[in-house]
């Protein structure tokens, strides 16, 4: 029994506001329940057709040029960082670091024994930055959306970068919810458990011809570096061209991803998704600006993410208790990222989240604050 019972009329229709895994629409779960591909071979036509459909929908969603390729593999974005160390970074990379996940990719490169130490431009969490131009860098890396803090950075060209260098964009919490011209990158990679309302364990990379050529260069030389098959982007691309993954994927993840892609495309594509997340974040931040017990963690409005909002609660508020009461009333996963302190809440506003539920969330927080402050 909750210590406080929020009035039923205030509660959101769906109380899931996690920053990943995120809300899965009930309609997608119904699609999963009806699916006849679970428990079948991923090398056979039904699953290969499903993978082909996902690749086609992603190509359409981002308007990819004909010579780009949608590549899939197992392991999620964390595995893709390791893959990039093997298959994409030739010698040195340059990173923009402004949160835990941008830091983790730079750290993965720094621990790779055959690579030079990366160039790292790091700013205080809650702010954002692009990588420094480095004459020795053959890869530049940053995140479209830093999930830990709620900072969004543009997918843009880097003036002064060598023409042969690659741009790698971590889009795990941005893809399917933030607009982007991915032609400004060479690899736009993500896992599907955020805006695509699926499960984790899969990485997806939208790859330019230059990225695939780099992977061939690094993984195919007979006297080159040792490349395990699971970290070989060229091998993953060869399998993707056959609408399959190198090793067995979670079929349910593919079904949920396809259902979400169809829903987004049927409603207008990336423009629909981005407008929906912008509306949700507008409602959250308008509430913050008018609440004396809250302030935005990301102080620069231009850097505030539409899909993840981090709010610092006033010292008069017991933020962990607030989160606990919300959870006991069915409003879940608004706790802050574990390394950013205990005085915050973090709200996932991915494409599946109804903006009206964000308004109801803020009303519930106001009600709780009125009881505990």
UniProtKB/TrEMBL annotation:
Record's function text: Catalyzes the reversible conversion of 3-phosphohydroxypyruvate to phosphoserine and of 3-hydroxy-2-oxo-4-phosphonooxybutanoate to phosphohydroxythreonine.
Transmembrane parts of this sequence: none
Catalytic activity: 4-(phosphooxy)-L-threonine + 2-oxoglutarate = (R)-3-hydroxy-2-oxo-4-phosphooxybutanoate + L-glutamate; O-phospho-L-serine + 2-oxoglutarate = 3-phosphooxypyruvate + L-glutamate
GO biological process: glycine biosynthetic process, by transamination of glyoxylate; L-serine biosynthetic process; pyridoxine biosynthetic process
Entry GO MF terms: alanine-glyoxylate transaminase activity; L-serine-pyruvate transaminase activity; O-phospho-L-serine:2-oxoglutarate aminotransferase activity
Gene3D superfamilies for this protein: Aspartate Aminotransferase, domain 1, Type I PLP-dependent aspartate aminotransferase-like (Major domain)
Keywords: Amino-acid biosynthesis, Aminotransferase, Cytoplasm, Pyridoxal phosphate, Pyridoxine biosynthesis, Serine biosynthesis, Transferase
Cofactor: pyridoxal 5'-phosphate
Pfam families, per database record: Aminotran_5 (PF00266)
InterPro entries from the UniProt entry: Aminotrans_V_dom (IPR000192), Pser_aminoTfrase (IPR022278), Pser_aminoTfrase_mycobac (IPR006272), PyrdxlP-dep_Trfase (IPR015424), PyrdxlP-dep_Trfase_major (IPR015421), PyrdxlP-dep_Trfase_small (IPR015422)
First-level EC class: transferase
Species this protein is from: Propionibacterium cyclohexanicum
EC id: 2.6.1.52
Location of the Aminotransferase class V domain: 133-331
Name assigned to this protein: phosphoserine transaminase
